[in-house]
Amino acid sequence: MTASPVEATPPNGHGRRVSVVLPMRNESKGLDRLFARLVPALDALGVAFEIVTVDDGSTDETLEWLKARRAILPALKIVSLSRNFGKEIAVTAGLARTTGDVMVVMDSDLQHPPESIAALIAPWRSGAFDLVYARRVNLDRGGFLRNAFSKGFYRAFDMMSEVKVDRETGDFIAADRKVVDAFLAMPERNRFNRGLFSWAGFRTTTVAVTMEERVAGTSQWGFIKLLRLAVNAITSFGTLPLKVWAFIGSAVSLSSLLYGAYVVIKTLLFGADVPGYPSLLVAILFFAGIQLIGLGIIGEYLGHVFSEVKRRPLYFVQEAIGFERPLEERAATSALVVEELGTDVV
Question: At what angle do helices 240-270 and 144-160 cross, to 10 degrees?
Fold first, then answer.
């Protein structure tokens, strides 16, 4: 698929409609408290709003709770994916269904306080900025190892990628319609949303927001998932891991030539020593390991290519509730590919 460029358009009627996107999986225990704070916070904005929830393959009562709540909250809209596709895809699915002038993306566990939405969209309302990130204050980054891993990832990403991502920001954002349209025009399957928003550009700023503790349940992000996301992010936005092996190969070759010259000179001057089999075995294993690491990195990039050329849809929607128009009408100008398994329910 070829994504056509998205033209930036001037602000048009800032403040008319706010769309909130809530990706969630197995969050039923905390939804009462979430909506008890979210709805009043949106009412206080004094503008029309919609809440687009994306059930990302929950195995608890999350979907049933949302359906029951919609009976008393018409602004609530529900997208139920056919399985768990991951948070990055769930956010994409929600943004593809929004109709607002500004879209707010936030977590469903109340670590992103709903009361901060007003401060988050204030720079956008002024017309000065198109994309506003929440700069995380008092964020619990976990234990020492997780914090060290986080620092290492951001340093590696900044060094290896073509875009920069601020470590102090997260997924709590407010984005203008043209920013979201640009985001949806990027159809790649291996998605790192923060990198995609950063790559799109536009006028960006940050707002300090104090993070809170998760109200219920446990985080879906274990170390393996975080590691997978980190590798995916780095390999999606830079080719330095591939290029660096040219330098490693050159350094190894030069070292081998120098060592070979040393052996020749030593043999001519002092004669040949008895072969050292342990040192030979260590050298073979070392260079074999170097080669396997290089092949692994190449394989990671080839895996990305393989995933893209299959051209599978990003996700499948099992059920969509509360939407007035078919998705195809709203996504006609987007390169996003989506398939419906069921029909929309108004």
Answer: 90
Residue with tokens 């979201």: 180
pLDDT tens profile 269-286: 766 665 665 566 667 767
Instruction: For tokens 């009462």, name the residue.
Output: 32
Residue type, 249: G
Handedness of CA 245, 246, 251, 255 (dihedral sign): positive
Eight-state DSSP code of residue 214: -
pLDDT score recorded for residue 209: 83
- Residue 335, classed as helix, strand or coil, is coil
Specify whether the CB–CB gap between 241 and 304 falls below 8 A: no
With b for 16 or more beta-carbon neighbours within 10 A and e for fewer, the 23-51 pattern comes to bbbbbbebbeebbeebbebbeeeebebbb
C-alpha 63/C-alpha 56 separation (Å) is 10
Backbone φ, ψ for residue 138 (5° rounding): 60, 35
The encoded tokens of residue 81 equal: 């994916």
Q: What is the pLDDT of residues 139-177, one digit of tens each?
A: 665 666 766 766 666 676 667 677 777 777 778 889 999
Range with lowest mean pLDDT among 14-18, 77-81, 209-213, 333-337? 333-337
The domain that holds 117 is classified in CATH as 3.90.550.10
* Same-domain status, 195 and 253: no
- Those residues whose C-beta lies under 8 Å from the C-beta of residue 95, and which sit 6 or more positions away, are 21, 103, 105, 180, 183, 184
Q: Helix count (H) and strand count (E) of the chain?
A: 11, 10
DSSP state of 107: -
Q: What's the structural domain count of the chain?
A: 2
